Amino acid sequence: MLFHGQFLCAFFALFFISFGSANSWVFRRLSMATYPTIYVDQSGHGNFSTIQSAIDSIPSNNGNWICVSVRAGEYREQVRIPMDKPYIYIKGDGKRKTTVVWDSHDSIATSPTFISQADNIFVKSISFKNSFNNPPTNYNPIRTAVAAMISGDKSSFYRCGFFGFQDTLWDVQGRHYFKLCTIQGAIDFIFGSGQSIYERCTISVIAGALDGLAGYITAQGRSTPEETNGFVFKDCNVIGTGLTYLGRPWREYSRVIFYNSYLSDVVLPLGWNAWGNFGGREHQLTFAEHGCYGIGSNTLNRVKWEANLSQDILSWLTSIRFVDDDGWISRLPVNIALYMYTNSGMFLSLLIGLL
Ligand SMILES: *[C@@H]1O[C@H](CO)[C@@H](O)[C@H](O)[C@H]1NC(C)=O
Ligand SMILES: *[C@@H]1O[C@H](CO)[C@@H](O)[C@H](O)[C@H]1NC(C)=O
């Protein structure tokens, strides 16, 4: 008996030791690469007190991940990551705690509070706001006022906020992945020719400030049938005030899909708008919905030209392959990919760690 007891103890000890070490191995895998960190702190306890001075200190042609950690606070500055500075990871203290605010307007090229032009940029837990018309109660005339402009390839935003009114987020071009972000605005507030998945994001409509006129969530800019770009909203929440269309075309072959998303009553029954100059060419557009729910998802009165995607196209657009055919998302400094397909991320990561 004693022998058996000792054996069992030894067995369990061994089990827990191996479980424990497998576990810490998993956590090493989860925390991924180590990287140098530059601290930005307005109270003077960091390396820099503005985000831009931290970015300026990073050498051109940076080839390894470097983290710019931005302590809580409201940073009043325009921030630009130039094309020659890839592999920057900007990390805030939370999208409600670290905010970058600017209020430039009129030009989509010069107004953005945040401009990201390099490839391989990762941004987490920070908000970008263009305060010219946000909140709308500041009674400025409504103008183009961009909060963020993203033109690099392989750029990803995790738990970030984008706040504006007209043209909030210029998703210019390249493969982008937005997860658990909040995007707020009223007119064409997610626009451009990016090839992007917005997953589990909150789309916060503030069209109530348009005095009865309808807003537009998207103005996507795919311009030929050969272009692979488009906006995919997957497991998102569309909420807010006033009335809005899901989108209107910025270019001839605009492509937008809302997939498995909650659409509140802010979404107009017609759903989509063809913008004046596209009348008669609506068949070129790919505006679709699949698996959505909520009052605004009733498609009974939708425009007749809403697209009905084949199962093949639908699976391609809504799988991560649409933005990531080479695994770049799994090589980010924080592995947001592990939690991609399931909410039981811990179980999945253990499983992956053990394999
Ligand atoms: C940033 O500040 C910390 C501590 O104040 C220091 O150890 C580190 O070397 C500084 N980093 C840079 C890049 O200046
Ligand atoms: C969409 O196409 C599928 C077949 O691919 C068909 O079963 C379905 O009825 C179509 N839906 C509409 C609204 O046309």
Structure commentary:
- This protein has 355 residues and is α/β, with parallel strands linked by helices.
- Helices cover 15% and strands 30% of the residues.
- It contains 4 helices and 25 strands.
- The strands form 3 sheets. The protein has a 10-stranded parallel β-sheet.
- Helix 2 links the parallel strand 1 and strand 2.
- Helix 1 packs across helix 4.
- The longest helix has 30 residues.
- The two termini are 36 Å apart.
- It binds 2-acetamido-2-deoxy-beta-D-glucopyranose (NAG) (2 copies).
- One 2-acetamido-2-deoxy-beta-D-glucopyranose binds next to strand 1.
- Pathway: Glycan metabolism; pectin degradation; 2-dehydro-3-deoxy-D-gluconate from pectin: step 1/5.
- It catalyses: [(1->4)-alpha-D-galacturonosyl methyl ester](n) + n H2O = [(1->4)-alpha-D-galacturonosyl](n) + n methanol + n H(+).
- Its EC number is 3.1.1.11.
- It comes from Camellia sinensis (Tea plant).
- Pfam families: Pectinesterase.
What portion of the residues fall into strands of 2 or more residues?
Answer: 25-35%
- State Rg: 23 Å
Counting DSSP E segments of at least 2 residues, the number of strands comes to 25
For the termini, the CA-CA separation is: 36 Å
Topology as a string of helices (H) and strands (E): HEHEEEEEEEEEEEEEEEEEEEEEEEEHH
The small molecules bound here are:
2-acetamido-2-deoxy-beta-D-glucopyranose
Q: Helix proportion of residues, in percent?
A: 10-25%
Main sheet properties: 10 strands, parallel
Q: How many helix segments?
A: 4
pLDDT averaged over residues: 89
List low-confidence stretches: 5-30, 340-355
Order of strands, widest sheet: 1-2-5-8-11-14-17-20-23-25
User: Helix/strand-derived class?
Assistant: alpha/beta
Shape: globular
Domain Pectinesterase catalytic: 38-308
Active site: 188
Family: Belongs to the pectinesterase family.
GO biological process, one term: pectin catabolic process
